[in-house]
Specification:
heterodimer, A: 243 residues, two-stranded antiparallel sheet, 35% helix, globular, B: 813 residues, alpha/beta, 8-stranded mixed beta sheet, 30 helices
């Protein structure tokens, strides 16, 4: 009950700030989708080690026009809580996952964030709503170019997109407060761990393009020691009975 | 007439050869463009074309029979044309297997795919059904050629797949069908048949040309498609065999850096690598060896390196050597005697020729002894003992975590396999098994449960003393020691884990506080589960666990099956909230295939009945239709139950999955064909029913005897040369298959004498039952094992014998 009350409060707070935005044809759909996600996350919260989504993240989700980041043929499905194909064998993640991953990064407005795998640019836009600077690397050139153009058109001037290999991170701008790796290879690149600030956090979704199995949260403490937390983004306990 | 008859029989045999070949080829083609499990679903349902042919012919039998020559020839010709055409169209459909649960349009595409593929099977089966119905006095012979042709089709397509690329083999299907069309026209001496043949030549040739000039349209979401989007990345070579299509990929700008499970504390990166993709996925790599041993240090920073840190090892066996990573790992630790086993000769050949220098002549080194063999068979036959037996992480992460291997039999992870491994360890030797980490934990725990039971059954009183389990965020490694772990070994385990940031999940004497330190889960699931599995209430724990952790056995070889029905409602309720990856898709796909097949079969069986009761086909019922239904359905189910079960059972004897499947399938179909030929004589003597009873008794006795034989397969047999074992397999199969070939033609001939209009209907029933049988056999084996499948088959044969469709007057006698 408390959860519902809290989410209701968040909803009211968030929609009042969103009202200040220019409404678009998908405004209603977007607010509905975000409200759904907020409720879902509250249910899953115990798995993620937090009670609810950060209101700033919810606010960002309410503002970013997801329909601008999907191909025209998928536009009317842009606010379904599901991953969608964006061409080049890539997808735009399920908004529920985007919300959780962003939230796990614990971002502050002054943070500098690195994203490996720009894709459509949607995640970068969410990040750009929350922090000062976002650096995003995409290896598939046509995707990266389109995303850069799109972000510019939507006035996300605090995002830098670079076409290239994300394995070595973005040395010139390192270290980062947070890193999000949306296209992981066979392991987490050691250079990325190096480019994480002490106290910094990295999130890596694990699984297929259409189904995220788990979220890997890599944390570097102030002494530089690295630990991971493996989070199931779903409320599921593998045992029944008394164990 | 004699010569024409032979030509007709030949056309039937060639058509069956092409149709069965096509079925096997489709499995290959779909595994390349999509994923294996959807291939299974699409092809199973497409085979309902057999059932559909029965329905269509029953409905239009007057017209089709009047123009037999034309319709028979056209059926063959259209099979060839549509076999190629349907596949080429299917390739262009925007089906995305990964989106099936997200997008309502995807099931629609899926339906269209199997409808399109059902067309060629319907034409092929239709032609055969027409021949059976038209020459109802020669049913035994026609069916014999049908079976023998199919039997040869299996071998023939496997041989062709060794020599040609899959699309070239598709063209061969077109060629076979064209020849079969010509043979039919020559046999039938009919202007109509010749006209059809001549008309079919241009489109058939066009299709063959198209097949030769087509390439596989691989799903953009498969690993290979994804990799090829990286700049300066290209396929440099391609090898094809029935074991898979290998694409060798080089990336000049962006290295592959394949090092699954690499510690977060690792620095360096792997040397340059060449990717080997099997069927567009399942990437493994060949790593460049420029002579600098330190370049391979990264292989010492993954969980599977653990055993090398416990003591100095001399003899190491690597099962599943692939591109050589595990061999390099052993060489990094300067192991003097490395024995490696790899199933796919083309992978080995790559390392021995094109990439010999690149890989530093890895497989030609004096310390490496490489065997091209099936792993389980190799170790069973071996008399060696090893300090370490390493079972490599062979399957791909994605498919493994999505539960797509649920239907794949694996004889590497069964209880019996573990006992065999343990027998081949030196005193104090280790068995090391690495797996991908799945959350919530599944396969790692099933491995542990299997190891515990294997140790207990091998006479070990305290399995806990002989097990160590460690994990990173991505992989886990389980060590089973032949003897108790010593204090110094345990210290080494702890040091290894501490240095690399891996967690210990079990070692003898472990404290709860040591668990879950570096890679934290919400609960220390691995440690707690290990404790539970080692405790007195292990059974209760497995019952309460939401995934199936029971060890797999040789009779129930489904290690990758974790699904429990009880959790389905919970997972479905979590659909939008990240719960879908918890679904073990492979199993559910199989169940959904079964339901669809049952529904379609019901339609295909009932629909013709409505027409049989109408118009010109209405005759006085001379035979009880319910008996026809039960009889042909039962033998359709039973035949494939036994064939599939013995393909599996024989693979324990023959080991190699290909040789086993080819030998058993060809043996079964060929000898069943001979049985059918013999049944012709029984029919002519008027002993059809008696023949069925004798055959069923024989099938029951032999099947059950073989089950006992496989239960305690004599060790001495296993080490015989492969050729001798293949001969033995065929000798065993021959009498059983001979008798299994009789019930169908005996009863069909009987229908020919008493109710000829029911022949196509019976054929359709049998076709539907075969499709259901293939799906059901796997599902039943997952739950009850292949022995149960065989016992059920025997019961079905007995049921068939009891419901033999006799004419009413005989029944009343």
């Amino acid at each position: 009950m408390t959860h519902y009350f809290i989410s209701l409060l968040i909803l009211i707070a968030a929609s009042s700030s969103a009202l200040a935005e220019t409404p678009d044809a998908f405004f209603e759909a977007r607010q509905r989708m975000v409200s759904e996600i907020v409720d879902d996350v509250v249910e899953t919260a115990s798995q993620l080690g937090r009670e609810r989504l950060n209101p700033r993240v919810i606010d960002a989700m309410r503002r970013v026009r997801r329909h601008e980041f999907v191909p025209p043929e998928n536009r009317r499905r842009a606010y379904k809580n599901r991953p969608l194909p964006i061409g080049h064998g890539q997808t735009i993640s399920q908004p529920y996952m985007v919300a959780i991953m962003t939230d796990l990064l614990d971002l502050d407005p002054g943070d500098k964030v690195l994203e490996v795998g720009t894709g459509s640019g949607y995640q970068a836009a969410i990040l750009a709503e929350l922090v000062d600077r976002v650096y995003s690397i995409e290896i598939v050139a046509p995707l990266g170019k389109d995303a850069a153009k799109r972000l510019k058109r939507l006035n996300y001037d605090n995002v830098d997109v670079r076409i290239g290999d994300g394995y070595y991170g973005w040395k010139k701008q390192a270290p980062f407060d947070a890193i999000i790796v949306t296209a992981a290879g066979s392991h987490i690149p050691p250079p990325l761990i190096k480019q994480l600030k002490p106290g910094g956090r990295m999130v890596v979704p694990v699984g297929s393009r259409f189904m995220t199995q788990e979220l890997l949260l890599v944390e570097k403490n102030s002494a530089g020691d690295v630990t991971t937390r493996q989070l199931l983004p779903v409320i599921f306990v593998p045992l029944t009975g008394s164990h | 007439m004699k010569r024409s008859q032979h030509l007709l029989f030949l056309s039937i045999a060639l058509l069956s050869l092409a149709a069965l070949g096509y079925e096997i080829l489709l499995m290959r083609l779909f595994s390349i463009i999509q994923w294996h499990h959807f291939a299974y679903m699409i092809i199973s349902l497409a085979l309902l074309g057999y059932g559909a042919s029965g329905a269509v012919i029953t409905i239009f039998q007057k017209q089709l029979k009047r123009h037999f020559a034309l319709s028979y020839t056209a059926g063959i010709a259209l099979f060839g044309i549509s076999a190629i055409g349907s596949f080429l169209i299917i390739q262009q459909l925007p089906f995305n297997a990964e989106e099936v649960l997200w997008d309502w349009r995807q099931p629609g595409w899926l339906l269209l795919m199997y409808l399109l593929l059902a067309i060629p099977f319907m034409f092929a089966a239709g032609a055969i059904a027409l021949a059976l119905s038209h020459y109802s006095d020669m049913i035994g012979k026609i069916y014999a050629y049908d079976l023998i042709g199919a039997g040869l089709g299996g071998v023939c397509i496997i041989l062709l797949l060794f020599v040609f690329m899959p699309f070239e083999v598709l063209a061969w299907i077109g060629v076979f069908s064209l020849i079969a069309t010509l043979l039919a026209a020559m046999a039938l001496h009919s202007t109509a048949a010749w006209r059809v043949t001549l008309l079919s030549i241009p489109p058939a040739t066009a299709m063959i040309w198209l097949a030769l000039h087509s390439t596989a349209v691989i799903s953009p979401y498969k690993e290979l498609s994804q990799t090829l989007r990286i700049p300066a990345t290209e396929i440099v070579a391609r090898r094809s065999s029935p074991l898979g299509l290998l694409d060798i990929v080089e990336s000049r700008q962006t290295p592959f850096r394949h090092a699954p499970g690499l510690s977060l504390k690792a620095d360096g990166e792997p040397p340059s690598q060449v990717g080997i993709f099997t069927d567009g996925g399942n990437m493994s790599v060949i790593t460049h060896d420029a002579g600098n041993a330190e370049a391979f240090a990264y292989l010492d920073q993954i969980t599977s390196a653990l055993p090398y840190h416990l003591r100095k090892l001399q003899q190491v066996l690597i099962l599943g050597a692939g591109g050589g990573a595990d061999v390099q790992q052993a060489r990094y630790h300067q192991i003097p005697q490395i024995t490696a086993v790899e199933l796919n000769p083309q992978v080995v050949e790559l390392l021995r020729s094109d990439y010999a220098e690149f890989s530093g002549h890895l497989y030609q080194q004096s310390d490496v002894e490489l065997h091209v063999d099936e792993a389980r068979g190799f170790i069973t036959d071996s008399s060696q003992h090893y300090d370490l037996i390493q079972v490599a992480l062979m399957d791909a992460f994605g498919a493994s975590t999505a539960g797509l291997y649920a239907l794949n039999e694996s004889y590497l992870y069964t209880l019996e396999a573990f006992k065999t491994y343990l027998q081949h360890l030196q005193p104090s030797g280790y068995l090391s098994l690495s797996r991908w980490i799945k959350l919530p934990p599944r396969d790692t725990l099933k491995l542990m449960a299997t190891a515990i039971q294997a140790l207990k059954e091998s006479g070990v009183d305290h399995p806990a003393q002989q097990l160590v389990l460690i994990r990173g965020w991505q992989t886990s490694t389980l060590l089973v020691k032949n003897g108790a772990f010593t204090g110094s070994e345990i210290d080494a385990v702890k040091a290894f884990c501490n240095n690399l940031g891996f967690d210990v999940a079990w070692y003898p004497g472990m404290q709860a506080t040591e668990a879950n330190r570096f890679n934290q889960l919400r609960q220390p699931w691995f440690y707690r589960s290990a404790v539970a599995l080692l405790g007195d209430e292990a059974q209760q724990f497995m019952d309460d666990y939401k995934f199936d952790l029971r060890p797999s056995t040789d009779d129930r070889p489904y290690f990758f099956h974790f699904f429990k029905w009880s959790i389905l409602p919970e997972i479905l309720s979590l659909q939008g909230k990240g719960g879908m990856p918890l679904l073990e898709q492979g199993y559910l796909i199989s169940v959904s295939t079964l339901l669809q097949a049952l529904f379609a079969s019901l339609l295909l069986i009932i629909l013709p009945l409505l027409f049989l009761n109408r118009g010109g086909l209405r005759r006085k019922q001379t035979i009880r239709r319910s008996n026809v239904l039960i009889y042909f359905f039962a033998i359709g189910l039973a035949f494939l139950f036994i064939e599939i079960a013995f393909i599996q059972k024989m693979s324990l004897l023959l080991h190699h999955p290909l040789y086993s499947a080819a030998t058993v399938m060809t043996g079964f179909l060929t000898f069943a064909g001979l049985g059918s030929l013999y049944s012709q004589r029984l029919v002519e003597q008027g002993h059809a029913h008696r023949g069925v009873v004798i055959a069923v008794v024989g099938i029951a006795v032999l099947s059950l005897a073989y089950l006992l034989f496989f239960k305690s397969l004599p060790e001495a047999l296993l080490s015989l040369p492969l050729a001798v074992k293949m001969l033995l397999a065929i000798i065993m199969i021959a009498p059983l298959a001979f008798m299994m070939g009789m019930p169908f033609p005996l009863a069909l001939s009987h229908l020919g004498q008493h109710a000829q209009q029911l022949i196509p209907w019976a054929w359709g029933i049998n076709g539907c039952a075969s499709v259901i049988s293939a799906i059901l056999a796997t599902l039943l084996a997952i739950h009850g094992g292949f022995s149960m499948v065989v016992i059920l088959a025997v019961l079905l044969y007995l049921l068939a014998a009891l419901s033999f469709p006799k004419p009413f007057q005989e029944e009343n006698r």
